[in-house]
TrEMBL record:
Database matches in Pfam families: Peptidase_M14 (PF00246)
Protein family per UniProt: Belongs to the peptidase M14 family.
A Gene Ontology cellular-component term: extracellular space
Domain Peptidase M14: 1-64
Keyword Metal-binding: yes
Keyword Zinc: yes
Cofactors (names): Zn(2+)
GO molecular function term, any single one: metallocarboxypeptidase activity
GO biological process: proteolysis
Organism: Kryptolebias marmoratus
UniProt cross-references to PANTHER family, sorted A to Z: CARBOXYPEPTIDASE A1 (PTHR11705:SF94), PROTEASE FAMILY M14 CARBOXYPEPTIDASE A,B (PTHR11705)
Record-given protein name: Carboxypeptidase A1
Keywords attached to this entry: Carboxypeptidase, Hydrolase, Metal-binding, Metalloprotease, Protease, Zinc
């Protein structure tokens, strides 16, 4: 549809913030930007709520 600019999945139970991909280790073309956004988001969440999230691509975050 062309309207989606990003998809980020936040799993509060497991405290993981993830972005594509989950089926391949090949990084998305804007991986560096997604990584920076995720890092900022978890830093902000930690400062507000004291939570500690893991973050990264789905395949690297879940299947490490």
């Amino acid at each position: 549809h062309g309207n989606i600019k990003a998809f980020i999945s936040i799993h509060s139970y497991s405290q993981m913030l993830m972005y594509p991909y989950g089926y391949t280790r090949t990084p998305v073309k804007d991986q560096a930007e997604l990584h920076q956004l995720a890092q900022k988001a978890i830093t902000d969440l930690a400062s507000l709520y004291g939570t500690r999230y893991r973050y990264g691509s789905i395949i690297n975050t879940i299947y490490q």
